[in-house]
Amino acid sequence: MKKETNMVLILFGLAIPIFSINLSRTTWGPEKGGHGYYIRFSGEHTFEFIYSGEGGGQSVLGTYTQKGENVTLTTVTINDWGELPDYIKQKTINCKITEANSLFSEYKIIGSGGMELWSVNHKPKNGEKVLLNEHTVFILHSNGIVNENARLREGPGLQYRFFTFYFEDEDIERNALPKGYGLKIFGYSDLKTTVDEVEQPWYYCSFRKNMWEEQFGWIWGGLIDLK
């Protein structure tokens, strides 16, 4: 995705960057990915809302105009209201592209009717620092494998509650991931914990519980082998 910084506006002694994201051939969706509605922009000033997830959903076509960070979407093919989000049901959706301090995307597009979608094409780079629920996280795009049974926690520390969950087609409630299970790594905390004289940071990661659902949380680094 092309990122253009057009100018810097000097106002009352402050430098305010004015940026413009070229929407052509970009895709925007839920912050953490997964199922839900995505919007895909073409190079001909047209767009399509596409549903990704169980059961499918209605695709909606339209046209768009862009002036800097301001975008206007005009929907043209809504045949059945069905279970469409309220913002898609609008004939005209006025949007604005903003910076997003997120592990998953550097930009999001906010529109009337409650629309809020994140850029799939422009993700933070490794080493960038972001905030997640007031925790400092350094971006790390990687994969990992659990090397011992590992609990997934709500925050980066042993004091945080661990999750319980069910795998698909299992009747057993689990409170830890089994050894050898694969993870998707998004970043690591500046907080470290020492266990058995081993000091390691906490990693924010996810694993897939079933075809459509991922579980996100924190695992102590001593229980993960990075790939």
Key features of this structure:
single chain, 227 residues, mainly beta, 8-stranded antiparallel beta barrel, 6-stranded antiparallel sheet, 1 helix, disordered N terminus
Largest sheet: 8 strands, antiparallel, barrel
**CATH topology (level 3) name of the largest domain:** Lipocalin
- The overall pLDDT average reads 87
Helical run tally: 1
CATH architecture name of the largest domain: Beta Barrel
Q: What's the arrangement of strands in the largest beta sheet?
A: 3-4-5-6-7-8-9-10
- How big a fraction of the residues is strand? over 45%
Would you identify the regions where 5 or more consecutive residues have pLDDT less than 50? 1-17
Radius of gyration equals 21 Å
**Head-to-tail CA distance between termini:** 27 Å
The top level CATH class name of the largest domain: Mainly Beta
DSSP strand tally: 16
Helix % is under 10%
- How many domain regions? 2
Helix and strand string, N-terminal first?
EEEEEEEHEEEEEEEEE
Rough outline: elongated
